[in-house]
Design brief:
Strand content: 15-25%
Oligomer: single chain
Strand order of the largest sheet: 6-5-4-9-8-7
Order of helices and strands: HHEHHEEHHEEEHHHEEEHH
Shape: globular
Radius of gyration: 20 Å
């Protein structure tokens, strides 16, 4: 029995079958690729018949699903929805919302917090501008990853192989004449995002909508929260985006501090 197996066996344990099943879900939630019954057996050391029964339970409840050749699994709709609801109803919501409201007041435009969910971007929170002309996208709204400013940021934070897995079977739908619809074109845009440290959506998803976004820094280095400003193109263009970047980045740093204070154990582990 190798050291890796020992570590994983410690993770998949509990005093009851329910707790052991929950522990297995934690292992599955950390994966960013398809997994098989055999690969989990090798990782966890759980006997194959026992693990097969556990996976059957999770599959029948929608927590995991079969993919590809029907021998591999990935997280299911129910597990992803659970993660989204936790993000939407996190206890740090009020503190983050206050930062969002202050940013919106400072720049005079709508602001939102987003997270990556599968190959979509979900709006975790949003504050609308008081200006009469605006785009209304409520918390819980979803937008495509390939043609949104925050989507580009999350893609830029992945390795190329991770991006390829995410986008390999995704249709890069053309929503406007400015939408990037090729993998090569998207890779070029991602390189620009990496160099700039921020991303824009210049009428790529909705005609007339301009968006600028930055990541909320994370201790681990890989963030799943982004902060963005959105406005109609007639009053918000690239010049204004550059002017509001300092305020946007300051708000993102404040949110990062809120996240760090909400996870003291994680912060200590990173030290």
């Amino acid at each position: 029995m190798n050291p890796t197996t020992n570590v994983e066996q410690i993770r998949v344990e509990g005093d009851t079958p329910t707790l052991r099943l929950f522990s297995l879900i934690e292992v599955i939630a950390e994966k960013d690729e398809f997994f098989s019954l055999q690969s989990l057996v090798e990782e966890t050391g759980i006997p194959k018949p026992t693990l097969h029964r556990m996976l059957q339970q999770l599959e029948s409840s929608g927590i995991i699903q079969r993919d590809g050749d029907n021998r591999h699994y990935s997280s299911g709709v129910r597990l992803r929805r659970l993660a989204e609801r936790i993000l939407l109803n996190n206890t740090t919501h009020s503190a983050r919302h206050a930062v969002l409201a202050q940013l919106s007041k400072e720049v005079g435009e709508s602001c939102n917090i987003t997270a990556l969910s599968g190959n979509e971007i979900i709006y975790v929170d949003r504050v609308e501008t008081q200006a009469p002309l605006r785009f209304c996208l409520q918390a819980g709204s979803r937008v495509p990853v390939h043609c949104s400013a925050t989507g580009k940021l999350f893609l830029a934070g992945m390795t190329k192989s991770q991006r390829n897995r995410l986008l390999a079977h995704a249709e890069l739908t053309q929503y406007t004449e400015k939408t990037i619809i090729t993998q090569d074109g998207l890779e070029e845009e991602i390189e620009r995002v990496k160099l700039a440290g921020y991303a824009i959506d210049n009428e790529e998803f909705l005609p007339g909508l301009y968006c600028v976004a930055v990541l909320v820094p994370a201790p681990s280095g890989q963030s799943n929260l982004s902060l963005a400003i959105q406005a109609p193109i007639m009053r918000f263009k690239s010049e204004q985006a550059l002017l509001v970047l300092p305020a946007l980045r300051k708000a993102a740093q404040t949110m990062a501090q809120i996240e760090a204070e909400s996870w003291p154990e994680k912060t200590q582990d990173q030290c």
